[in-house]
């Protein structure tokens, strides 16, 4: 069973797509959001949850005070589950979008986001992840706010993501077979 850990929807259940997803464990989400709240990037944030699956990460952010959350996934079943979860939780400012993460990021960014959550399939190779990370730091119509945080969840055996110019890792945390990487904009490298 997957549930929201804390916030206004804390303890509420989430629907998980029947196949094709690997929801972030409750323990990892609890630790991740504790860190993000300590960094001050959740409350009032604009959030992108890429490769959203059930939407657990983005919905956790909304439950904890994010004001705008885009749940992006290419699988129709995942997007349907995201929409049902957002509706059942009654969290304002949440929308689900059917698109590949790279395809979504190729579009217009609009106002910069404060938090990007990326939990791609563990089998995604470095090139696939790079296609998601690279558009975040584009000079024209940027996705990232000046003090934003990018979180990438990967299998521990996958190794560190190849960060594009303009983005630098500032932390990592391991939870068993899962590694969570934290990055931020690097104005001196872009």
Automatic annotation (TrEMBL):
The organism's place on the tree of life at top rank: Bacteria
Keyword Methyltransferase attributed: yes
An annotated Gene Ontology molecular function: nucleic acid binding
Catalytic EC class: transferase
Keywords annotated in UniProt: Methyltransferase, Transferase
InterPro entries: DNA_methylase_N6_adenine_CS, RNA_MeTrfase_RsmD, SAM-dependent_MTases_sf
Pfam families: Cons_hypoth95
NCBIfam families: 16S rRNA (guanine(966)-N(2))-methyltransferase RsmD
Protein name (database record): 16S rRNA (Guanine(966)-N(2))-methyltransferase RsmD
